[in-house]
Design a protein that fits this description.
about 425 residues; Methylamine Dehydrogenase, Chain H; seven-stranded antiparallel β-sheet; five-stranded antiparallel β-sheet; about 0% helix; about 40% strand
C-alpha cells in the first residue's frame, strides 16, 4: 500500500479574535477594510466592517444598528489594538501527512495525520484544520518525521511526541507519547527527523542522533533511545533527513551522510548502508532531502546537482533507476531554494515563483493537470511566495494572501478541512 508522506518569515498575516478574522487568510492588524468580515460595501449589510461616519454599531460587523459605544470592537475599530493579529513565521511538513505552523507569538498549530499522536494534541484522530498545541508555546522550530515530531522551545530544549517503537522520541523508553515530552540533557538549534530516527544540532555545534539502527552515525547499527554523539563532520550549519538517511552540511559546504541509503542518496554511487558520516563529492550552499532524493545548490554559480531517485523525470531527464552520484540538473540552475518531495521536486526561483517537475498523479505539481512532466511548470495561480515546503505527496507555501497547499490530502494534510486531493493550490482553513 502506497503511503503518502508530507514532508515544510513570512508574509502571511493572521487575524486573531480581536479582528473577528477566523480564517487567518487576510491582513487585519492595520487595515480594517481587509478584515474577514468586510464585504466591500458601506454600512447596512451584515459583512461590512467600515464604521459609521459618526457612530458605531452594536456588533463587530455593521448592520445599520447604532449603539452608544464610542468605537466598534474588533475589526470595526479604525486601528485595531497592537498585537491583535499575528504572522506565520515558519511552516513544517512531514515524512507522513502531518503539518505544523509557528506563529509570530510563538504559538504552534498542527493538523493532518494523527494515528500515533503526532499532531501533539493528545488524541489519535486526524485533524483537518490547524489546531492550537498549547504545550508547544514558545517553540522556535518544529520538525516532523513519519509518525513522530519534535520541537525546539525558546530555551532550546527539545520535546518530542508520537510513535516511539525505535526510541525515536529520545526519552530512554520505547513508549509512545501523544503530547510533547522532554529529551533530557539536550539543547539544540536545529533538528531533523526521518521515519524512525531523530537528529539534533546542539548549541555547541555537535550532532546527536537517536532511534533505529544505522541512523546514529556512531559506526554501529545499535538502536539508541537517548541522544548519541555523531563523530565530527566539521562545523555543521545544516542538518537534513530523508526516510532513512541523514546528511549534514558544514560551513565549508561539505555534505556528509549516513544511514540505510535507500535510493543511493548518500551519493557514493551505490546503495550500501553507511553507519558513519561519508563525504559527498562537491560543495553546496544548501541541500534539500525528500523521500529518497537529494538536491544541492553550488555556492557562487547557483548550479543545482541532484542524486537518488529520479525515476519520474524530476531531474529533467529520463532515468530508469537511481542516480548514484551528484549529477547536474540544469533546469533548476539559479534557484533560490529547492524543495525535494517524494518523486517530484519544486524550486523557488529568483522571481519567488514555485515551479515543479516529476510525478503528478495526485496533483503534486500544482498545475491542475495530474500528468507527470520532466520540465518545470509554475504552480497554477500561486504567484510570488515567501517559503515553500514539499513532502512525499504535497507542498505548502506561505504567500502574501495566506498558506496554500496542493497535492494528496487523504489524511487532511492540506489543512483545508477536507480529505480531497487538490491539483491546484487551496487555502489552509485557519
Amino acid at each position: 500500500m502506497r503511503r503518502w508522506i508530507s514532508v515544510t518569515k513570512y508574509a502571511l498575516l493572521l487575524g486573531a479574535l480581536g479582528c473577528a478574522n477566523t480564517d487567518f487568510k487576510t491582513i487585519c492588524y492595520d487595515d480594517r477594510t481587509k478584515c474577514a468580515d468586510y464585504d466591500g460595501s458601506i454600512d447596512g449589510s451584515a459583512g461590512d466592517s467600515i464604521v459609521d461616519s459618526s457612530t458605531t454599531d452594536a456588533t463587530t460587523t455593521d448592520s445599520g444598528v447604532v449603539d452608544a459605544a464610542p468605537v466598534d470592537a474588533g475589526c470595526d475599530v479604525a486601528t485595531p489594538p497592537v498585537g491583535s493579529c499575528v504572522t506565520v513565521t515558519d511552516l513544517s511538513v512531514s515524512l507522513a501527512a502531518t503539518s505544523c505552523a509557528i506563529l509570530s507569538d510563538l504559538s504552534v498549530r498542527c493538523w493532518g495525520w494523527n494515528s500515533s499522536g503526532q499532531v501533539g494534541d493528545g488524541s489519535g484522530s486526524d485533524v483537518s484544520r490547524p489546531k492550537p498545541i498549547p504545550s508547544l508555546s514558545g517553540a522556535l522550530s518544529v520538525a516532523i518525521g513519519e509518525e513522530h515530531a519534535c520541537a525546539i522551545l525558546g530555551d532550546h530544549s527539545v520535546r518530542c511526541w508520537g510513535k516511539n517503537d525505535k526510541g525515536q522520541l529520545g526519552d530512554g523508553t520505547m513508549s509512545p507519547h501523544s503530547v510533547p515530552t522532554l529529551v533530557t540533557g539536550l539543547t539544540a538549534k536545529t533538528i531533523a527527523l526521518g521515519y524512525t530516527d531523530t537528529c539534533a544540532l546542539t548549541l555547541d555545534e555537535k550532532v546527536f542522533c537517536w532511534g533505529a539502527g544505522n541512523f546514529a552515525g556512531d559506526g554501529t547499527t545499535t538502536q539508541h533511545s537517548i541522544p548519541t554523539l555523531v563523530p565530527s563532520t566539521g562545523a555543521v550549519v545544516q542538518l537534513a533527513a530523508s526516510r532513512d538517511t541523514v546528511c549534514t552540511r558544514s560551513s565549508a559546504g561539505v555534505v556528509s551522510c549516513w544511514g540505510k541509503n535507500s535510493g543511493a542518496v548518500i551519493g557514493t554511487g551505490d546503495s550500501s548502508p553507511r553507519t558513519s558520516p561519508t563525504a559527498v563529492t562537491g560543495t553546496y550552499s544548501s541541500i534539500s532531502m525528500g523521500y529518497q532524493t537529494i538536491c544541492g545548490i553550488h555556492p557562487g554559480d547557483a548550479k543545482v546537482f541532484c542524486w537518488g531517485d529520479g525515476s519520474f523525470g524530476q531531474f529533467g531527464y529520463t532515468t530508469s533507476g537511481f542516480v548514484g552520484i551528484p549529477t547536474a540538473a540544469p533546469m533548476f540552475d539559479g534557484a533560490k531554494s529547492m524543495q525535494v518531495g517524494g518523486s517530484f521536486i519544486c524550486a523557488v526561483g529568483g522571481d519567488n515563483v514555485v515551479r515543479c517537475a516529476g510525478r503528478n498523479d495526485v496533483g503534486e505539481l500544482g498545475d491542475g493537470l495530474n500528468l507527470d512532466r520532466q520540465t518545470l511548470a509554475p504552480v497554477k495561480g500561486l504567484g510570488s511566495v515567501d517559503i515553500a515546503r514539499s513532502g512525499l505527496g504535497y507542498t505548502c507555501a506561505i504567500v502574501a494572501g495566506g498558506v496554500q497547499c496542493w497535492g494528496v490530502n487523504g489524511s487532511a494534510e492540506l489543512g483545508d478541512g477536507t480529505t480531497k486531493d487538490k491539483n491546484v493550490p487551496t487555502a489552509v482553513a485557519w
